[in-house]
Amino acid sequence: HPPIYPTAVARRGELGKEEWMIYELVVRRFLATLSPEAIWEVKRVEIDANGEIFRATGKKLLSPGWRAIYTYIHTEEAYIPDLTAGQVLSIEKKELLEKETKPPGRYTTGNLIKIMERLGLGTKSTRHEIIKKLYSRKYVYGNPLRPTQTAFAVIEALKSNAETITLPDMTSKLEKDMDAIAEGRLSDREVVEESVRFLDEILGNIDVKELSKSLREGVKKDKVVGRCPKCGKELVIRKAKDKKRFIGCSGYPDCNFTLPLPQNGTLYITAKECEKHGIKKIKIRTKKGYWDLGCPYCNYIEWKARQ
Fold first, then answer.
1. Within 10 A of 78 (CB to CB), how many other CB atoms are there?
2. Residue 239 CB coordination number (10 Å)
3. Within a 10 A sphere around the Cβ of 225, how many other Cβ atoms?
4. Residue 28: predicted pLDDT
């Protein structure tokens, strides 16, 4: 689909606050695409201190280019003085810090689209839809994206039965073949026949029973929020006969412990646990966005106290 672009000049007094903010965003983005590149001066320095190599990177903005118009992105400059190779420096201060390496950050939807583009997965018009399906099928939640237990179960089950499906190569090749059809380098019949042979081989190796079992276990894990304070068995998200959802003990009917849940929105069980009750905290996604429900047991106790 074509990009959004301004078609007329608007005046601030003619629009509401939010309307003006959206209009300004579109206009600035449009003008930025027509502006010159930003020019940075980047310095990378290696300093040898008695055999220990220290590295530093500095950058200075020489010409803002499009950044002068699209002011929503801020990057700090880092100053490093001019140095020459072999220059001797005096050490003014030494400081030993105890730190731990941090894991790489989780993917955002923007990062994921860039990686899909690099791997040849999907097209410009389908990548957003693919990510939407990940959310709607409850394989991921939040942004940055967090995988659910169902997602882990799907990947592990497919790796055991048809690992080829879990790799980007198959989809990437199919996208390239479709481009080749459009350019006349391949016939659609050739591509279809090869795809059918390939899928027949994969489907022949899949153990349907094992795959179904793994998926059921993954879905079940996604519904577990903790341990029952009465009997110690698992607390799981359930639905009553009237379709209302609640948290109930898996030991039912021997244990009838339950906790109420909001009936609107999509529930997501987070990895964070309540320090007091050991129950996982819950987030809810509605049309207005995400909001933290927190510990459902704490909420229930607070609600009872207000009655």
1. 12
2. 10
3. 26
4. 94
Residue type, 48: D
- Nearest C-alpha neighbor of 222 from the set 133, 141, 107, 109: 141
Domain count, the chain: 2
More confident residue, 136 or 201: 136
CA R_g for the chain: 27
| CATH code for the domain of 207 | 1.10.460.10
> Is residue 196 located within the same domain as residue 283?
no
Tell me 25's DSSP state: H
Is residue 125 domain-shared with residue 152, that is, in the same domain? yes
- The tokens describing 107, both together, are 């993917």
* pTM confidence score: 0.56
> In degrees to the nearest 10, what's the CA dihedral of 169, 171, 175, 181?
100
Q: Could you tell me where the DSSP H helices lie in the chain?
A: 17-33, 109-119, 127-136, 149-162, 168-182, 188-205, 208-221, 296-306
Q: Report d(CA 134, CA 154) in Å as an integer.
A: 12
Q: If we measure between CA atoms, which residue out of 212, 120, 231 comes closest to residue 174? A: 120
Domain assignment present for residue 243? The answer is yes
How much is the average pLDDT of 144-170?
A: 79
* Token representation of residue 246: 């609640």
Domain annotation covers residue 83: no
The last residue of one of the domains, among 155, 186, 217, is: 217
What is the tens place of the pLDDT at every residue in 34-74? 999 999 999 999 999 888 898 999 999 999 999 999 999 88
Q: Which helix (H) or strand (E) holds 236?
A: strand 234-239
